[in-house]
Design brief:
Blueprint: H1 2-39, E1 49-50, H2 53-58, H3 60-63, E2 67-77, E3 80-84, E4 91-95, E5 104-114, H4 130-138, E6 149-152, H5 170-175, E7 184-191, E8 211-215, E9 218-223, E10 228-229, E11 232-233, E12 245-255, E13 258-268, E14 291-295, E15 300-303, E16 309-313, H6 319-322, E17 326-330, E18 345-350, E19 355-360, E20 369-374, E21 390-396
Parallel strand pairs: 1-2, 4-6, 9-13, 15-21
Antiparallel strand pairs: 2-3, 2-5, 3-4, 5-6, 7-8, 7-12, 8-9, 10-11, 12-13, 14-16, 16-19, 17-20, 18-19, 20-21
Length: 399
């Protein structure tokens, strides 16, 4: 009888272990899927991107989840807000948490979402009246991809009219390309190679010499001429050459959300004086980030000793805030001859997936309880702090 009871107990423990393993595997597959999808998108810069509503709707995969600035007409109808492009051809819905701006011409700033690429329970949706939008626009059903486009905008005061400046800058052209289409201009900007920093969603493919010129929060393609002159030449594929300032003269062209300069003359330039920009008042700090998933999962058992620990956040994080704020230790006392502390480790933050990776220099000790802690000071890119200390506990297995 005792043998039968012991066997049943072992069988029960095995079933529990298998269930836990299955759950961990399912979550791991989910995380890998997120990594694969995000890897198809260019690395996201942390600065705002000046663009147009047409570009947002033409390249939603590129702009999804990015902070953007666009100009348009803000209007409210039957409780729903929208931002419409010049001429009224294209528009995005606008979500706000509390204060309401004055309708009219604005320079709007916020995070662009293709709602179908978010989960309905995504913490970024908290505080917005999603139900009203979904009910009115999609009969209450959460949309699929490329169905509903939103600018998540938190306004602390009335909207500001779009600046009316006579200066021809890359920013002015990119924000209102219809006003410059076909015009001859001269602009100054940083050389960024053949889109080496993912400033723009796509190349116009107008010449073999296309490269990107960037200034402030805006970037534009330059076509037709090589970036070289007397006693100087820049390599479009070399980051070491980026950062040089160029002065470009040419004619503005645009199509399908892309804007470019057909260059007539290219020379070395100097950085311009920073220009004052009229801004809509927006909060400096967003909601506090949270840990949305980890691998291993909390209280997981039989974790492989060569595990690559992954911690995924709900918001884009400031990579520098993670440096020296990760602590790993063994909870259980070591057996005789066993190491007292885990091996050294290195951390890496993957912006595209919002994942922190912790890689150990050697295998963890077998059958040990491990604590991974995030310490005070970990923050999102806008300074919002993670509630700390945050801790993940798991137990290593035999291999």
């Amino acid at each position: 009888m005792r043998g039968v009871t012991a066997g049943a107990a072992r069988g029960f423990r095995l079933r529990v272990k298998l269930r836990r393993t299955a759950v961990a595997l399912a979550k791991a597959v989910s995380l890998v899927a997120v990594v694969i999808v995000a890897a198809s998108v260019s690395a996201q810069p942390r600065t705002r991107i000046a663009t147009t509503i047409e570009a947002l709707l033409t390249y939603p995969v590129f702009f999804h989840g990015r902070n953007v600035v666009v100009r348009g007409t803000l209007a409210e109808r039957d409780g729903l807000w929208s931002l419409t492009s010049a001429g009224g051809e294209r528009r995005v819905h606008v979500l706000m948490k509390s204060t309401r701006p004055d309708p009219g011409a604005v320079e709007a700033r916020g995070e662009f979402w293709d709602l179908g690429r978010l989960q309905q329970e995504d913490p970024r949706c908290a505080g917005y009246d999603m139900d009203r939008l979904i009910e009115r626009v999609n009969q209450g059903r959460w949309p699929g991809q490329n169905q509903i486009f939103v600018l998540a905008l938190e306004l602390a005061g009335p909207g500001a009219a779009a600046p009316s400046t006579q200066a021809t800058t890359i920013r002015a052209i990119v924000l209102e390309p219809d006003k410059y289409d076909g015009q001859r201009v001269t602009v100054t900007g940083r050389f960024r190679g053949v889109n080496l920093f993912g400033d723009l969603p796509q190349a116009p493919g107008r010449s073999r010499y296309d490269f990107v010129l960037q200034s402030a929060d805006a970037a534009i393609w330059v076509t037709g001429l090589q970036p070289k002159g007397k006693n100087w030449s820049l390599d479009r594929n070399a980051r070491v050459d980026t950062g040089r300032w160029l002065e470009v003269t040419g004619t503005i062209g645009r199509t399908s959300g892309l804007v470019w300069i057909d260059a007539e003359k290219i020379g070395l330039g100097t950085a311009p004086e920073p220009a004052a920009v009229v801004e809509i008042a927006v909060p400096k700090v967003g909601p506090a980030p949270e840990v949305s998933f980890s691998l291993p999962t909390p209280d997981d058992i039989d974790v492989e000793t060569n595990i690559l620990v992954r911690i995924q956040f709900s918001r884009d994080m400031e990579a520098a805030s993670l440096k020296d704020r990760v602590r790993v230790r063994y909870v259980t006392p070591p057996a005789e001859g066993a190491p007292a502390s885990p091996p050294p480790f290195a951390t890496a933050y993957r912006e595209g997936t919002k994942v922190l990776e912790i890689k150990f220099s050697a295998r963890l000790d077998r059958f040990r309880v491990v604590d991974v802690e995030l310490l005070e000071g970990v923050a999102a890119f806008d300074g919002a702090k993670l509630a700390t200390p945050w801790k993940l506990t798991f137990t290593t297995g035999p291999q």
